[in-house]
Amino acid sequence: MTVLRRVFLTAVALAVAWLSHQPSLEPPFRLFPHQDKVFHFLEFAGLGLALHVNRDLKPFFRVGSRFLAGFGWAVLDEIHQHFVPGRFCDPADLLADAAGLLASLFFCSRLCTHARVRKGHSRAGRSDA
Q: Would you say residue 6 lies in a domain?
C-alpha cells in the first residue's frame, strides 16, 4: 500500500509539471472568464490529497509541512511557466493553487479526524456492551 501512495504522489507531481510545460492549455469551450483558476484549484487539490495520503513521510507529518511542500511546488510551477512559450507566471494562478491545496488539506484532515473520533466512539460502545 505504501508503494501505491508514493506512486500516486509522484504521478500527481509529474502531472502538474507536465501540464505546466504545455505551450497552450486552452479548454475546448469557455464557460466563464478566468475558468482556468478552477483548473488550477482542482489540480492542486489533487496534489493536496496526494500529500495527505503520504503524511507518514517524515517531512509531511504535519499539515503545515504538507502545505509548504505543495505551495513550494506551486511557486516552482509558476516560475517554470515563465520560461514556456505561450505561458506566463500569474500570481492569480498561484492563489488558486494555494486555495486548492488548502481546501484539500483541510477537508482531508477533517475527514481523518472525524473517522478517528467515530472509530473511537464505536470501540467505546463495544467495550460497554
A: yes
Q: Any idea which residue has 514556456 for its cell?
A: 84
58-82 pLDDT, tens digit per residue, is 877 788 889 999 999 999 999 999 9
Q: Which domain holds residue 45?
A: 2-20+35-128
Question: What are the pLDDT digits (tens) for 17-35?
Answer: 999 898 877 766 778 888 8
- Grid cell digits, residue 108: 482531508
Query: Does 25 map to a domain?
Result: no
Number of domains in the chain: 1
**Does residue 88 surpass a pLDDT of 70?**
yes
DSSP conformation letters of 42-86: HHHHHHHHHHHHTTTSGGGSSHHHHHHHHHHHHHHHHHHHHTSTT
Whether 64 is covered by a domain: the verdict is: yes
Residue 62 lies in a domain: yes
Q: Distance between CA 84 and CA 92 in Å, rounded?
A: 18
**CA–CA dist 75, 62 (Å, integer):** 20
Using DSSP, state whether 106 is helix, strand or coil: helix
CA-atom Rg of the chain in angstroms = 18
